[in-house]
Amino acid sequence: MKKSNEDITNKPIIIGEIVRIEGGRFLVEDKTEKLSDDRPYAIWFSTDEIESLKEGQNVSVWTNAIEESYPEQADAKKIEINE
């Protein structure tokens, strides 16, 4: 599942649960971090690896750029499924 590690941080941008999958993207919600208005911190990620992901999985995701919106949007550069 790893793509190029160029320019990605050594820490994941988010660790959380996949709460929705649609098209070639998946929505990850951080279950521990909330925004100031009590909405969950969440990011939509685009990936070519969508077939290997399932809703309810806990994942760590790395990226190198985030588009500001709610939820934020980014390309997943590396995805790890957490046990």
Element layout with pairings:
Elements (H helix, E strand, L loop, with lengths): L13 E9 L2 E10 L5 E7 L11 E5 L3 E2 L4 E4 L2 E5 L1
Parallel strand pairs: 3-6
Antiparallel strand pairs: 1-2, 1-4, 2-3, 4-7, 5-6
Describe the 3D structure.
The protein is mainly beta and 83 residues long. It has one domain: Beta Barrel (OB fold (Dihydrolipoamide Acetyltransferase, E2P)), CATH 2.40.50. The protein is built from no helices and 7 strands. A hairpin with a 2-residue loop joins strand 1 and strand 2.
Write a concise keyword list for the protein shown above.
seven-stranded mixed beta sheet; globular; DUF3221; OB fold (Dihydrolipoamide Acetyltransferase, E2P); disordered N terminus; DUF3221 domain-containing protein; single chain; NA-bd_OB-fold
Which class in CATH terms? Mainly Beta
Q: Tell me how many strands there are.
A: 7
Global structural class: mainly beta
Q: Determine the N-to-C terminus distance.
A: 16 Å
Quick structural gist:
The chain has 83 residues and is mainly beta. 0% of the residues lie in helices and 51% in strands.
